[in-house]
Amino acid sequence: MDFTLKRYRTLLRALKGRTVILRHDVDKRPGNSLRIARMEAEEGWKAVYYFRAVPCSWDEKVIQEIAALGHEVGYHYECLTTCHGDLEAAWADFQKNLSALRKLAPVRSICMHGSPRSPWDSRDLWKHYDYKALGIETEPYLDTDFSTTFYLTDTGRRWDGWKSSVRDKIPHWQEIWVAQGLVYHSTGQIIRAAEDGTLPKKLMITTHPQRWEPFGLRWMEEAIAQWAKNLVKRWFFI
């Protein structure tokens, strides 16, 4: 059974000894993120949690508790989408939300929210403005050297989700990794690759904590909803 909390703990244990950047996109259900943050702290891991400036993600108590556990808090921005492509409004919105988040926890990292139904890619904001002028050190899509860092994401509720992803993929390098056989569909396949030594030693992993549940009704709801979402993206957006 994949995408359970038990399976995630097994993954964390299998990854020990590697250089791993653990990223979490808190798109919704922030309580799930807090549960995973506690698990990671128990296992000796530090991660970064990116929060959207929308009610289904922005939970101030959760943000502060995750920061208190020693994890990093980042801003999951989608300003060009929420401002309908208006660059000046998006830049003002970005600064406003970043300032609000910094009142809850230190913020040195930002990460684009994909917004697959939107015609705008919020990373285009940085063609006109400089996030580093605001004390931001990292935007992982823009500042990671993917020639030395392998990327895995559970987008699409699968680890080969670039096939149905609009923006959460790494052009050029994705094709190279596929040619090298670095393709994993399930969490179990990643665990086995870590155990047999075929998984790269340096990698960045993105998860969406709302997907990781104990098996039950909410687990099934998420599985069905993601299946339908993948189908729509394949037909209309890719």
Description:
The protein has one domain (5-233): TIM Barrel (Alpha-Beta Barrel). 39% of the residues lie in helices and 14% in strands. It is built from nine helices and six strands, in the order H-E-H-E-H-E-H-H-E-H-E-H-H-E-H. It has a six-stranded parallel beta sheet. Helix 2 (30-42) packs parallel to helix 3. The longest helix is centred in the last third of the chain and has 20 residues, at 217-236. It is globular, with a radius of gyration of 17 Å. The protein starts with a helix and ends with a helix.
Tell me the distance between the termini: 29 Å
CA radius of gyration is 17 Å
Mean of pLDDT: 93
The number of helical segments is 9
Instruction: Name the assembly state.
Output: single chain
Which range best describes the helical content: under 10%, 10-25%, 25-40%, 40-55%, 55-70% or over 70%?
Answer: 25-40%
Can you tell me the number of structural domains? 1
Low-confidence stretches: none
Characterize the biggest β-sheet: 6 strands, parallel
- Architecture in CATH? Alpha-Beta Barrel
CATH class wording: Alpha Beta
Q: In what order do the strands lie side by side in the largest sheet?
A: 4-3-2-1-6-5
Strand content: 5-15%
Silhouette: globular
Order of helices and strands: HEHEHEHHEHEHHEH
Tell how many strands the DSSP assignment holds: 6
CATH overall fold name: TIM Barrel
Which secondary-structure class do the elements indicate?
Answer: alpha/beta
